[in-house]
Every structure is written in C-alpha cells, then in structure tokens.
Description:
- This protein is 68% helix and 3% strand.
- The chain is mostly helical.
Amino acid sequence: xxxxxxxxxxxxxxxxxxxxxxxxxxxxxGMWGLVPLFWPLLKPAGxxxxxxxxxxxxxxxxxxxxxVVRRWAWAGELLRQPRRLGLxxxxxxxxxxxxxxxxWAVNSGHVVxxxxxxxxxxxxxxxxxxxxxxxxLRPAQWAAVGIGFSAVLVLTIGFGRPPWISLTLAFSFAIYxxxxxxxxxxxxxxxxxxxAIQFLPALGYLLWLSAHGGLTFATEGVGHAALLASTxxxxxxxxxxxxxxAIRVPLSTLGLLQYLAPVFQFLLGVLYFGEAxxxxxxxxxxxxxxxxxxxxxxxxxxxxxxxxxxGPAITESRAKVSGVAAGSTGAVGAAVAVxxxxxxxxxxxxxxxxxxxxxxSASAADPGVSGVSGVVVTGAxxxxxxxxxxxxxxxx
Length: 396
C-alpha cells in the first residue's frame, strides 16, 4: 500500500483531506450565510408557499440522494420505534416554525434580527442545558449567559419591542436540537424523515392554494417554478458539504466556522439590504459578540486541558489495539482488526478531544458526543449552522 500522506488536523486524515474538509466547511457555512440572497428571488410567492415548496422539494432531493447511496435500513428501524418516530414528528414541527419564521423575516426586511437569532442560539442552548438537562456551567459560561441576557434587554430597547424573531429562531433551533439528541439519525436521514412528515401537509397546502388561484408556481413562468423547485437543493447541498467537512477537520474548526453564517447574514442585512442599525442595536450586538468570545475561549481552554489529560490514555489505547491486531491470526484476527477500525472511526482515527462553541450543532451523519459544556470527545463530527437540519452535539 502507498505510504500515507502526512496526517491532517484530524487524526487519521491526510493534509489534502484536511484541505478538502476545510473547503467543504467554508462552502457549507458560506451557503447558509448567503441564503438571505435567495429567498427574495422567490417573490411574489409568499413565505408560506415558499416554506411548503421547501418541504416538498427537500424530500425529493434527499430521497434521490438516499437512493444513490442505498441507505434505507434506518427507515424500517425508525418505523418500529414509536418513541423515536414521535420525536421526529416533534423535530419536524419545530424546524417548520424555524424555517417559516426565517423565510418570512428575510423577505420582510428583518435579516439583521434573523442573524441575531443564530448568534444567541449557543447561549439559549446552554441555558436549556442548565434548566432541562441539569448541567453545571463553568464561571465563564455563566458570565456569557448573563451578558447574553443583558444583550436581549438592550436590543429590546433598540428595537422598541422584544426581538421576537431572534428569540423564536434561537429557541426553536435549540429545542430542535434537544429533541434530535434523542433521535440519533444521520444528517441526510434526519432531513429525509422530517421532510417525509412535512410532505403531505405541505403538498395539501399547495393544492389548496392552487385551487384558490393563489399558487405562483404555475403562474409566474418556468424560471420562477425552477427557483421554487431549487429550494430542495438549497436545503440539501450545504448539508452534503457539511458532512464532507465533518469527517475531515477538527470539531474546534467547525465550531469556529459556524459563526460565518450569522456574520454573513448580519453583513448582508446592514450593507446589502440597508437595514437600520441605531446605537442601541450596535450595543446589543456587541454584548452578544462578547458573550460568544467568552464561550469560545472557555471551550478551547477546556479542550486543551482535556487533551493533555487524555493524550497518554489515547496513545496507550492505540498501542494495545495495534498489538492485538498484529498478534491475531485467521478469522479471529480479522474480526479484531475490523472491530478496532470501527471503534476508531474513519480512516483509523481514534476519538480525539476537540472543542466547539457551546450550543453548536453536530452532524449525526457521523455522530459525535458532547454536552453543551463545550468539550467533546469524538472521532468525526461537526457543527452545522442554521438551516442545516442536523442535530446538535449529543451526550454519550
């Protein structure tokens, strides 16, 4: 076998794979960050019609992808587990609210407020971890949550009302992630299951709209119809890129990349759409950004400490696995070697300690494990941005 290239940032990956992963991560978060440019193109369709088309066409694209890779075993298992199926129904309902509010916000001139929702999402996820999962926070995390709460108060003054769009997006995505922790489906499989549940209500609404003469899909020309159909691609393509990134780059890198999406959205809102930013809003955003800096710094510090603690144990584990595989013969030896490879993840990567901004999401396409505390032990997982349809980091 050819000599392996120099390892990249994730154990067991080459430098070229690392570069490929980074490019895919940038592509995924870039697409999520630039998506506010897409939704206005779908006018005169209203937000509800766009949402319904997104549900219908997302299922079509994801089903086609699953047909290509022939991954359907999970569907039968899910149907035989009523509790998990019920959780998928809840997740589908919550992400419907998230998608609908986001599309409406962008097409109604509230891009900045929508971006705020995804800036504060990590803070909301941490708060839910404390209130629901009874997790204990470190001092820096308590400080970040307190600063985030102050930011909401300042922004309430700045907007002249509570920032309900931001809060709805942040809480719906946090609840979505909390539910998805229990489902444990891959990113593409998860999107397929959720859109399958959304499909009939969405199709029914489109048929009703058509019967009342309000459906723009058939009345605004072929180009408009093609754009509405492409909502499925806009939903699925970033998720595919994210999946490619998640197995090739460290979770800490994806945790930082996740902020590209709301940053792009914020800049589009201010510079492209020309939304107003009075001093009160700048002050509120500054507080949110300060809270995120605290969270990220705390997560990275904790990750380094954990890596120093676990490093010797991982090295010893690698040595034991190598020794057992080398000393085994025949069918038994093959079984041990295969088991070791499966235990260590893609390309023989052993689980490594990485960090991500607390509350970030992780693709279950290659599930990682974590609490919202900001430290994860995982072989290959990542943190998608909003619109991904992928679950947040989960505990073991």
